[in-house]
Write a structure and sequence with these properties.
The chain is of the alpha+beta class. It has a domain of about 35 residues. The protein contains one helix and three strands, in the order ββαβ. The termini are far apart.
């Protein structure tokens, strides 16, 4: 059943100004499987002990984010 008087979809129904999303600045990521594997980006860089234990116990390597 379709209505003939239905209004088109309007994204801003509350008549509020649009806001833009700013993505966070990532400090780096943990990688599993090299360049083409899974990478998990995080905002705060873990301390050296945490990075070393993740590498030794789980095999996850840390890579710093490249500056833009």
């Amino acid at each position: 059943m379709s209505e003939t008087n239905s209004s088109p979809y309007i994204a801003n129904t509350a008549n509020q100004p649009y806001s833009f999303y700013v993505s966070p600045k990532y400090s780096g990521c943990y990688r599993i499987g090299g360049n083409y594997g899974l990478s998990i980006s995080i905002v705060k860089k873990p301390n050296w002990f945490h990075r070393k234990m993740m590498a030794l116990c789980l095999g996850w390597e840390w890579q710093d984010a490249s500056p833009l």
